[in-house]
Amino acid sequence: MIPGGVNSPSRSYKAVGGGAPRFFVRGEGAYLYDVDGRRYIDYLAAFGPLILGHAHPALVRAIRQAAEEGTLFGTPTPYEVEFAERLRAAIPELERVRLTNSGTEAVMTAVRLARAYTGRSKIIKFAGAYHGHFDLVLVAAGSGPATLGVPDAAGVPAAVARDVVTVPYNDSEALALAVERFGSELAAIVVEPIVGNFGIVPPEPAFLEAIHRLARECGALVVYDEVITAFRFRYGSVMPMLGTRADLIALGKIIGGGLPIGAYGGRAEIMALVAPEGPVYQAGTMAGNPASVRAGLALLEALQAPGLYDGLEAKARALADGLLALSDRYGIPLQINRVGGAFSTHFTDRPVRTYADAEAADGALYAAFFRGMLRRGVLLPPSKFEAWFVMVPHSDADVAETLAAAEATFREM
Ligand code: PMP
């Protein structure tokens, strides 16, 4: 009935040996329960949004209130204004902000805005980076680094792909070459400031510096896709961690408290181009809906609990250190890239700093690990490219249970 049995391809078990994915009916705190009532410690966190865990009481209250008072008005509401103000208080670089329903829409519109503002059409994106499912970002590298892209999905026109130059992440030289060739046609460099989509991969300082310097020199905008990173590593954007400032920022995932949402914003003079103030059209029947926004408000409140991010980091560090010690003991090649409360597990001897490194990691070993953990009641992302996300309700006992499951799994690998 449903293609592949899933409403988003990343949910399928194709990348971890195939078969039907497990079906879940209920979540509570750090746990998910499957259709047979079995409990799993959840590190998928719905691919990132669920930082507070499942059915957090404050979010349940906010969503219940929205359900009782109406979930959709098709008019402005005070909730969306308050939410926009709270976002700007957390991320001052969001001088103005517009809400959407998904991360895809947020990045898509940020790119449209960059094209309108610069009057140019090309973008640079980085190999293996995921920015949603609109045509322009479903593009792979052409015949070499710093060449025009080719469609990465059927149905994406070759003419669209030719507007994209794909460059390896953390490769300042390839980036410089791409800007040298295409700089005068370049509207934006679109980048996850810390990669979350081929593992967790931080930018090398020189690379990040090159992105901003080269964009400035050629007159392109820098668009940060913070759909995963914002509010994941600290309360707000990762920009203060990195010491950078993007022109436009796309948000999603966490900020809706588990309900559908996205947002984009940034420099006021660029945002003034958005309709109805300006000529850049973007709309949404569901955009800024009271349910998502009220869940988002409750979430932002809860995320300001003192020590919350330190707690996530401590648990993630304990997991990462424990996994590395076990992999050592059982002779399994494992690289863990961790930033704060998120990390990735790549089965390889080589450090992972580009998509090619992540691709070279052993998919069969990851599949065996995923399945062994699933059998032992630990839910991981069903792809070697995706990250583990630690959530607030994960307890020390959950960490210990996870490491025990990992030891048993490594032993049979
Ligand atoms: N950008 C990034 C970095 C993402 O990880 C994702 C989703 N995985 C998106 C954009 C698209 O967001 P959505 O699925 O909400 O459309």
TrEMBL record:
Biological processes annotated in GO: protoporphyrinogen IX biosynthetic process
InterPro entries: 4pyrrol_synth_GluAld_NH2Trfase, Aminotrans_3, Aminotrans_3_PPA_site, PyrdxlP-dep_Trfase, PyrdxlP-dep_Trfase_major, PyrdxlP-dep_Trfase_small
Localization annotation: Cytoplasm
Record's keyword terms, sorted: Aminotransferase, Cytoplasm, Isomerase, Porphyrin biosynthesis, Pyridoxal phosphate, Transferase
Positions of post-translational N6-(pyridoxal phosphate)lysine modification: 253
Record-linked Gene3D superfamilies: Aspartate Aminotransferase, domain 1, Type I PLP-dependent aspartate aminotransferase-like (Major domain)
Keyword Transferase: yes
Pathways per UniProt: Porphyrin-containing compound metabolism; protoporphyrin-IX biosynthesis; 5-aminolevulinate from L-glutamyl-tRNA(Glu): step 2/2
Superkingdom, natural source: Bacteria
Cofactor: pyridoxal 5'-phosphate
A GO MF label: pyridoxal phosphate binding
GO CC term (a single one): cytoplasm
Top enzyme class: isomerase
Catalytic activity, EC: 5.4.3.8
PROSITE patterns, alphabetized: AA_TRANSFER_CLASS_3 (PS00600)
Keyword Isomerase carried by entry: yes
Substrates-to-products reaction catalysed: (S)-4-amino-5-oxopentanoate = 5-aminolevulinate
One Pfam short name: Aminotran_3
HAMAP family: HemL_aminotrans_3
Family note: Belongs to the class-III pyridoxal-phosphate-dependent aminotransferase family. HemL subfamily.
Subunit note: Homodimer.
Protein's name in the database: Glutamate-1-semialdehyde 2,1-aminomutase
